[in-house]
Amino acid sequence: MFTPRVSVALSVAFLSVLSACGGDSGGGGGSGSTGGGLVTVTPTPTPTPTFTEGDAARLAKQASFGPTPALIAKIKEMGVNAWLDEQFAATGSTYVDLAGEVRRDYCASTDTVCTRMRFSRTPVAMRFYADAVMAPDQLRQRVAFALGQMIVASEAEVNSTAGIAALNQIFLENAFGNFRDVLARATMLGYMGDYLDMADSNKSAPSENYARELLQLFSMGPDQLNMDGTPKLDAGGARQPNYTSDDIRGVARALTGWTYARVGGAAITDGNARDYSRPMIAVATRYDTTAKAFLGTNVPAGAAQDASVAAVVDAAFNNASTAPFVSKFLITHLVTPNPTPAYVGRVSAVFANNGSGVRGDLKAVVRAILTDAEARNAPTASAGKVKEPILLMAGLARVIGFTTDGYVFVNRDSSMGQPVMRAPSVFNFYPTDYPLPGSTTLKSPASKLLNTSNVLRWHNFVYDWTVGGDATRAEYAVSSGLPNSSLTQPLWSDWEAFGTDLDGMVARINLLMFANALSQPQKDALKASATAITHADPVVQARKRAQMMLYVAASSPIFLVDR
Description:
This protein is mostly helical. The protein has 25 helices and ten strands. It starts with a helix and ends with a strand.
C-alpha cells in the first residue's frame, strides 16, 4: 500500500514538467490562411527521418485505443505509411450479429435480462470495449468512434440494441470509405429516424429536427468556413451563416414520407414492430411532392422520394464548408483540438480531392491527418489533448494487458461521465470548441468532463485497476445475468516476469504511457514508488511493484494528456 508522503512527492515530480493542465492545447502557431478563403498549398514537411519507439508510441496514441508493446514494435518495424496501409485493410470488429431487431413486446415484462439484451446499449457497448482493447483493427475503430461523436444518436432517447448496433456498424464499415455514404446511410436508418424525428415526418407538418442537425452538426456546421477552418467573414467582419430557416424548411420537406421498416413484415401501423436496424421505407401519401429549394439546390415537383433524399445528402456533402468542418473534427478527435489553419487546410484539400478527383475519401483524409508534420513532429509544450474517459479506460487496460468481454467497462463508463452510445444529447458529451480553462484561445473538448466529481472518479478508477487490480477483483467476474458475458482478466504475468528489474518496468511504462518522454528525475521518482514494496513471494512482489508504478503514472497529468 502507498503512503501519502510518497504519493505527494511523486505528484510534485510529475507535475514539474507540465504547467497545470495546459497540455490540451495543440499545434501552436503556424502559417496558413486566417480569412479570405485562401489555403496555403505548400507541401507537408517531411517528418524527422529517424523514427523512434517514442514516435511509434505517439502514433499509437492517436490511431488506436492505446499503445501495447506489440503495436509499438509493429509500427516501428513497418513505418507510418506501411502500418497505415495494414490498418486500412484490417478487420475484426463488428456489430452485425447484434443488429437483429425484435418486436418491442418481445420480452416478458418481468424478464430484465431479455430487456437488457434487446433494449439497451449494453451488448453493443460491451462489444465496443472488448474490440477496443483486443481487436486488431484499431484505426478503424478509432475513426468509427470519432464519426459516432459527430453523427450522434443515443440510447438516452431510443433504446434499441439492434438500432445502436446498426448505426455503429455504419461507422465501422465506412471509416475508410466515403463520407457521403456515411451521411446517406445514417440519414435513412430507422434508429436515426426515431432519434431526430425524420421517421413519420409528414408533408402536413414536416419535422425540422433532422434537417437542422444534419446541417449544423453532421456536415457543414452553422457558419461558412474557409478551407483552413477559419470563419469566412463578410465585409463588416461578421460571420456568415451556412443556411437559413428557409433552407431548413426546404430540407425538412424533402425528407418527408418515410417510416420504419417493420419486423416480420408487419403493418406500418404496428408500433411494436418498428425495425430500428434497417433503412426506413417510403410512405408515398406522406411525401411532399411539390417543388423544393434549399442550399442552392432545386428539387422539381414530382421528384421521387429517393431523389429528394439524395439531393439533400448531396447538398450537405458538397457544401464548401463540409470539407474543413469534417476535417477539423477528425483532427480534433485523433490528434489535437488546436490544429493550425495550415494543418486543417492541408487535410481539407484532401477531403475535397483525394488526388484522383474523389471528394470525401475518408481513407485519404485519415492518412493526411496522421502523416501530417503537425501530427508526426515532436510535440511542443502546448500540443496534445486531454484523454476522454473512454480512452482513459481502454488505454490503461491495453497498457496493463487485458482480456475482456467489455462488461466491466460498461459498468464503469457512466460514473466516469462518458457512457458510450448514450450521449446526453445530439451535441455529444462535449462541444469540440470547449475552451481550455485559463486560456482565451485554446480549446479542450474533454475538459468539459473534468468537474470535481469526475476527477475523483477517474482517480479512483485508476487506483482500482492498478493497486487494487488483481485478477480476483469482484468487478472482473462473469455477469451471471448476461448470456454473452465471459470474463475480464488483467494479464499481470508480463509485469511479474520483470521480477526485481524495476528499471525494466519503468522503461516499459515510459514507452507505453509517455512515449519515452519522462525525464530522469521522473523515472527515478517512479522507481522510488515501488522500491519500498516487498513481499515474501517474488511474483507477488513484482506485481505489486508494477501496480504501484502504474497507479502513479496513470493518475499523473502527463498520462491524462496525449501528446
